[in-house]
Amino acid sequence: MSDPQVLGLFPPGSVVDGDGVLSVGGCRLDELAAEFGTPVMVVAEDAVRQRARDYLAAFRGRWARTDVAFASKAFPCTAIQRLLSEEGLLLDVAGGGEVITALAAGADPARMLLHGNAKTDEELELAVGNGVGLIVVDNFDDIDRLERIVEPGTRQACLVRVVPGIEADTHAAVATGHAGSKFGLLPADARRAIDRIRRSRVLRCDGVHTHVGSQLLDAAQLAAAVEPVAELGSFDVYDFGGGLGVRYTYTDDAPSVDAYAQAMIDKARALVPADARIIVEPGRSMTGAAACTVYRVTTVKRGVVTHVAVDGGMGDNLEVSLYGQRFEAALVDRVGGGERVTVVGRHCESGDQLIDGVPLDNPAVGDLLAVPVTGAYCYTMSNQYNGARRIPVVLAAGGDARLVVRRDTWADLLARDVQ
Fold first, then answer.
1. Taking the CB of the first residue and of the last residue of the chain, which one, N or C, has fewer CB atoms within 10 A?
2. Catalytic status, residue 348
3. Separation between Cα atoms, residue 41 and residue 34, nearest integer Å
4. Could you tell me which residues come within 8 angstroms of residue 31 by beta carbon, excluding any fewer than 6 positions away?
5. Whole-angstrom Cα distance, residue 65 to residue 79?
6. Residues 302-346: pLDDT tens digits?
7. Angle, CA of 226, 258 and 221, to the nearest 5°
């Protein structure tokens, strides 16, 4: 019998078939593993689309002039950027590479926002040359570069990123709103940047931007960032960033999109002009819960600890090693229950541990193991450690599956060598 608790972490619509096999997007994971190999990331396409619709409905139902921008860094796969553009979202792109993938996805550059605390001339030239709609100014050097790059007679729309001075209740590596953050300008410096852009002949200050951090499970903490930017004055655009967390494990209590929107808009109604345009930038909370990664068990080693080793690991999921993120897992044909084991990866360091103390039902070599909630910051930080081939991405919907990112080949490992 399947465990409804672990099943609830898999993408919405996931079910256990009559013979006990887990299906995502109407596709059996054992069949996907047979067709595409392992490891493989499986994305429930309908779940991503519905999440985009939920975000738009939640915010526009409370503040009509709202845009939702997908934070592409969470999952900068061309197919995902295309899908979310089709659903009416803007694209938040962090760096030149994400501009390139967004353009390849067919996204309208006028509906992109460029971020980055260390933008290069090349990246800004790429953004300006392709007509990126908004450039988020993070520092005074951004202004210097843009004033050299933007052609006279034109004006590049900008937002100024403001440090809200909020200590986020999250891992230090993904906290961005505190006074010592490398991102943005403190309010006094932000005022100077706004004034300078307003005096520029080639730039236009459309508004302000802020961001508290990532994987936040308290909507009130996210809403607290509204006041610091509102205090800078009246603007056409207020971009409140993203940061809403997701439920990785049973103890996580992530706010609903409606609760998040209510908290943000309640603050906005009290503090910003009623005709302003609001932008929010969900990333993790847009795609995180819509995907799972399927591995094959290669070794079971019983001793002081039972280690269940799989054919992937920190090459396709760095969240554990970088942030200590807790995940759960299930065997594809025996969902839930069993002995507590430690799931480890194939890479040559002890830190390559995917999950400690996860119950698996009599795991054996050859079993398929699925880890849910891998749809954010796994693909984007995938790597070739120990010569690992980066894993494929498959979109599943209505029982049909399509490959949107292929697995690396052995030749890919040598492709950049010049001799």
1. C
2. yes
3. 13
4. none
5. 27
6. 999 999 999 999 999 999 999 999 999 999 999 988 999 999 999
7. 35
Q: DSSP readout, 38-65?
A: SSEEEEEHHHHHHHHHHHHHHHHTT-SS
Residue type, 407: R
Q: Which two tokens stand for residue 16?
A: 């256990």
Ramachandran assignment for 103, one of left (phi > 0), alpha (psi -120 to 50 degrees), beta (any other) = alpha
Judge whether 282 and 70 are in contact, CB under 8 Å. Answer: yes
Give the angle subtended at the CA of 192 by the CAs of 186 and 196, to the nearest 5°: 140
Residue range 359-379, pLDDT digits in tens: 999 999 999 999 999 999 999
From 374, 314, 322, select the one nearest 343 (Cα to Cα): 314
pLDDT tens per residue, range 39-94: 999 999 999 999 999 999 999 999 999 999 999 999 999 999 999 999 999 999 99
Upper half-sphere CA count for residue 111 (Cβ side, 13 Å): 20
Closest residue by Cα to residue 378 from 298, 308, 311, 288: 288
Among 174, 222, 265, 209, which Cα is nearest to 92's? Answer: 209
Q: Which of 27, 292, 348, 378 is catalytic?
A: 348
Cα angle 262, 288, 98 (rounded to 5 degrees) comes to 100
Residues 6+ apart with CB under 8 A from 44: 11, 12, 13, 14, 24, 25, 290, 291, 396, 397
Characterize the bridge pairing of strands 291-301 and 330-331.
unpaired
Tell me which residue has tokens 């994987």: 215
| C-beta of residue 327 within 8 angstroms of C-beta of residue 252 | no
